[in-house]
Amino acid sequence: MTMETRFDHYLRDHHIPYQRVVHRHSNSSLHSAHSAAIQPMHLAKGVVLEDHDGKHLMAILPANAKVSLHVLNDEYRANYHLVKERDIYRLFDDCDRGAVPPIGAPYHMNMVCDQALTELDHVYMESGDHETLIRLDREAFNQLIGHSRCLRFGSELFH
Fold first, then answer.
1. Which of 153, 128, 130 lies closest to 65, judged by CA?
2. Does residue 10 lie within any of the structural domains?
3. In CATH, what number is assigned to the domain containing residue 89?
4. Cα–Cα distance between 3 and 77 in angstroms, integer?
5. Res 29: pLDDT
6. Number of domains observed in the structure of the chain
7. Tell me: the pLDDT tens digits for 25-47?
């Protein structure tokens, strides 16, 4: 059973059409993609970064990629680092641990999106629990990320 999150409310309040995809319990974004039988490049994951002033940035990229901090630091003229896991739990206290929705707006943080996701017909993302993904078509995904900056900052991981 899924629980209501700020992400759910955000989708509803902004009239963003989506579908829920239920899958077996998973412990990571790559495992979620496997459980839901989707390609990892179609599953968006969120990585929360913090700068030297304590401001957060949600980096949204494909599940089979890792964040290139030097690209983001150059682009934003900042010094971002990964947020500690215990701090993630506090920021996303309405979600299951480890099931962070890759969207910053409902959590009052700026976002940057890897351009690769904007080129897909459909994007999936964690909903805030370990058994449900949100499926968005290209138009809905672009509506969700709004006026966020989009650039290439992910480098593909090989498994």
1. 153
2. no
3. 3.90.960.10
4. 38
5. 82
6. 1
7. 888 888 888 888 999 999 999 99
Domain assignment present for residue 74? The answer is yes
User: Which string of DSSP letters, residue by residue, matches the chain?
Assistant: -----HHHHHHHHTT---EEEE-S--SSHHHHHHHTT--GGGEEEEEEEE-TTS-EEEEEEETTEEE-HHHHHHHHTS--EEPPHHHHHHHTTTS-TT---S-SGGGT-EEEEEHHHHTSSEEEEE-SSSSEEEEEEHHHHHHHHTT-EEE--EEE---
pLDDT tens digits, 45-78: 999 999 999 999 999 999 999 999 999 999 999 9
Q: What is the rounded average pLDDT for all residues in the chain?
A: 92
For the chain, state the CA radius of gyration.
Answer: 14
* Amino acid at residue number 75: E
Asked if residue 41 is part of any domain, the answer here is yes
pLDDT at 158: 60
Q: Please tell me the distance from the alpha carbon of residue 54 to that of residue 140, in angstroms, as a whole number.
A: 30
Question: How sure is the predictor about 1, in pLDDT bands with cuts at 50, 70 and 90?
Answer: very low
Cβ neighbours for 18, distance < 8 A, ≥ 6 positions apart: 11, 134, 135, 136, 140
What residue numbers bound the domain in which 149 lies?
18-154
The reply to whether 54 falls in a domain is yes
Return d(Cα 98, Cα 6) in angstroms, integer: 16
